[in-house]
Write a structure and sequence with these properties.
alpha+beta, Beta-lactamase, 6-stranded antiparallel sheet, 3-stranded mixed sheet, 13 strands, 35% helix, 14% strand, globular
Length: 390
């Protein structure tokens, strides 16, 4: 951590939110700038009777979705998939793909496959869950590629089945081989083996449901059945450190570098920039844009007022976790709050923290520029490489 940024506002904000006891028992936050780790905070309670550490792992729900999106992007990059090909011939068992549903529409949440949602699916046995996904259909009058509704569950299981059908590998193994291990995400899982579950159990934290009076630990998150289920839609486990590392790798790729395992910079840019107009999303209940597996234009997704229009990322389970990248800053951020609160409170919590982070960055940049002007009057100083939409 050599940048000299104090992060006073950021630290104060995250510490206050934990100390108040209204939003979360504990928190992790990792910030990287230009691939360099400049902040790594872990405070409060991990939910298992001990202090939070950066190594604790949590179920992050929909924040895990971009992992599978990157695996799909690799298949697009190599020509095994086309974004605009109808998926029904590849997955005829999914009746909701009839009528010409494309990969692009699944990824940008305009396929109409948003029912059943995750809570409904969790109530079913695994066998009945598979049946329900395969029977899922669009509501009457749905306009493919035009209407938007966030597919919390079904869409990402369609993607998982697609990856397995093309590669001949179990999704869990494929994600480990082509995304997680090459990017150094050793504390991230989308479906653990039993051996992995036993090894990670001592540092497996728990989210707390704080939407009502008191705080109820969601102990099912530590069960072997849940941890070993391969659930690419909202069943992943990771921590803030790995989330920031993931987005740093994507930023490096967009800048022409990054791990060779990632898709090309052109394909990554296609996935991380808006892939649908800014329209009302029937599930998210807001006007927003979406990339291919990534939230885009994050100001519309309650990430605060200061993210650049090029920012992209994802959040999970009413804001218990979120992660994002801002190419204009070379900024990658991972955050885990292990407290589940209502939508409005979660959005207030997230906006306040992200705004505090940008305030710290702006104050540091202003002080540095002032120092440069005093030392070398008239000298201009260039920031991070800026990316423009193609």
């Amino acid at each position: 951590m050599t940048t000299g940024i104090s992060f006073d506002n950021t630290r104060e904000r995250i510490e206050d939110q934990v100390d108040e006891g209204l939003f979360t028992p504990g928190a992790q936050m990792t910030v990287e700038l230009g691939g360099e780790r400049v902040l790594d905070v872990a405070i409060g309670d991990a939910g298992i009777g001990g202090p939070m550490s950066p190594d604790h792992v949590f179920r992050v729900y929909c924040t895990i979705k971009p992992i599978t999106a990157v695996a799909v992007a690799r298949l697009v990059d190599e020509g095994s998939l086309d974004l605009d090909e109808p998926l029904e011939p590849r997955l005829p068992e999914f009746t909701g793909l009839a009528g010409g549903v494309t990969l692009r529409q699944v990824l940008n949440h305009t396929s109409g496959l948003f029912r059943p949602q995750a809570v409904e699916m969790e109530m079913l046995t695994p066998a009945r869950r598979q049946e329900a996904m395969k029977r899922a259909r669009q509501p009457k009058g749905w306009r493919l590629g035009v209407d938007a509704a966030y597919s919390e569950y079904v869409g990402w299981h369609v993607l998982g089945a697609l990856v397995e059908g093309i590669t001949g590998e179990r999704l869990r193994d494929h994600l480990r081989a082509v995304v997680l291990d090459p990017l150094g995400l050793a504390s991230t899982w989308v479906g653990m083996t039993r051996e992995e579950y036993r090894a990670v159990l001592p540092r497996l934290g728990v989210n707390a449901d704080m939407r009502h009076l008191g705080s109820v630990p969601m102990l099912f998150e530590r069960s072997e059945r849940i941890c070993t289920e391969t659930n690419p839609s909202h069943g992943g486990y990771t921590n803030a450190s790995d989330l920031a590392r993931f987005y740093s790798a994507i930023l490096a790729r967009l800048d022409g570098g990054g791990p060779d395992a990632l898709p090309s910079d052109t394909t990554i840019e296609t996935f991380t920039t808006p892939a649908r107009p800014t329209v009302y999303d029937k599930v998210l209940d807001r006007e927003c844009s979406y990339g291919l597996g990534f939230m885009t234009e994050l100001g519309r997704h309650a990430f605060g007022d200061l993210c650049s229009p090029l920012s992209f990322g994802h959040s999970g389970n009413v804001g218990t976790s979120f992660a994002f990248a801002d190419p204009e800053r070379g900024l990658a951020v991972g955050v885990v709050f292990n407290g589940l609160v209502g939508h409005e409170a979660a959005f207030l919590r997230r906006r306040a923290l992200v705004n505090a982070l940008y305030t710290d960055l702006d104050e540091h940049d202003a002080a540095r520029q002032e120092a440069d002007r005093n030392e070398q009057p008239g000298r201009s100083r260039f920031g991070f490489r800026r990316r423009t939409h193609r």
